[in-house]
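Hi R.,

Here's the chain you asked about this morning:
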Amino acid sequence: MSWSKLAVFAGGVLFGTAGIKALGSKDAKKAYTHVTAAALRAKDCVMDATTKVREGAEDVYEDAKRINAGRAAAEDAAVIEDQV
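And here is the predicted structure, written out as tokens:
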């Protein structure tokens, strides 16, 4: 085994160990908490927007049903009038 490969391996182990320590530190956990809180706020914002869009779509759907019912009634009245 060459010394350069052994040095690279040892460096990787040291870097990995330092990385684990850094990721588990108090400051890192605080950062994770803030990022998670921001993600939850973003989720709430998206859910509010989705609810508003859904309510608007339901209003449009109900209006369209009323328009079609009115047209159907007018066509039925026209057909009856034509038959008389």
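One quick note: The mean pLDDT is 87.

Cheers,
M.
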